[in-house]
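User: Here's a protein and a ligand (adenosine-5'-diphosphate). What would the complex look like?
Assistant: Let me lay out the input and then the predicted complex.
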Amino acid sequence: MSTRNQDHNQAAPAAPQDLVRRFEQEFGSAPDGVWQAPGRVNLIGEHTDYNEGFVLPFAIDRTARVAVAVRQDATVRLLSTFGDQGMVTASLESLRPGAAKGWTKYPLGVVWALRERGIDVPGLDLLLDSDVPLGAGLSSSHAIECAVISALNELTGAGLGAEDMVLATQRAENDFVGAPTGIMDQSASLRGSKGRAVFLDCRDQTARLVPFETEPAGLVLLVIDTKVSHSHADGGYASRRASCELGAEIMGVKALRDLDVTDLEEASGLLDEITFRRVRHVVTENDRVLQTVELLAGRGPGAIGPLLDASHASMRDDFEISCPELDLAVDTARANGAIGARMTGGGFGGAAIALTPVDSAPTVRDAVAKAFADAGFAAPEIFTVSPAAGAMRIA
Ligand code: ADP
Ligand code: MG
């Protein structure tokens, strides 16, 4: 187990005009524009994506922003307001998977993926700023990629739709950065909208916006970052995927998405005990996403608490990807007024979310902080997020 040290940058992101000014200082002329894209939180639907199932993420009010100017040569110059790499220069011809370092692999990965699609991306000057906390399960990497692809889609006149931009950023993450991620994060970042969650079918990439307005319901969504990442996270992820594939194969379906809760009785007779529980998580989780979508469209966010709770129990008991810190965060939040709480993300650490009445939020924050101190755990980072706009041009 390791504890991440970096504090979340809680400062508001630079205003567009500040970023423009900084760009002019660094690069000597004005950018062609400024684009932003948000991080995301997955409200419900965990480990369902690679089973071709349903997820329900939303774009958050934390964004990556890029000021970009087209150059007349084949050089890319990159600078960020964070990090100590200074200005990084690369030539378009030299872009190769695995060659870029640090944060620059995300923008360069997007340039590479677009060029692989035959889009004539020119040389660029690019300045990046972001207030999406990194490594907290809020997808700071996709926020960067989605801001960059929004900029390049417009500057090159490529005219890609959301679906193609999703696939291009996936290509950048999978093949250039080397992270085996799916389509959820960039779908939320590119398709998100204020007061909406993105109901996404991971089989055919169809997406639908669903009302998710916390504020009018008197609710806030707290993110509790445990700042813990367990060393077996990678192996755990691979073994869960393998169990899901085995379950689907024995049940004779293409993916677990093709089973529903009425198939579980048959599955319990055919699968070994562990595989059955893994399958039961995915099948019931898909069902919970569908129920959540229905409730959000009808009774509103105040009604989804029990589904969040059930999702956590399923990940803790059936999928076995929680950890003591996540369980403590969820249990303490609920005991102190949250109407529903669950771990979010891949598991074995990372963050939990707690849907909480506005009035109870301070109590929940204090109680979770105290419970962690009493248990001898490192102090968690707790902050609110709200469903916000997806990627857009801002200057
Ligand atoms: P996440 O779940 O946040 O996407 P990743 O490991 O995929 O975690 O991406 C985090 C990486 O993104 C960092 O290691 C860094 O290279 C880059 N990054 C993103 N945002 C920032 C930032 N604000 N400051 C520094 N690096 C950042
Ligand atoms: Mg990431």
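Summary: Residues 82-83, 102-103, 130, 132, 134-135, 137-141, 144 surround adenosine-5'-diphosphate (ligand 1) (CB under 6 Å).
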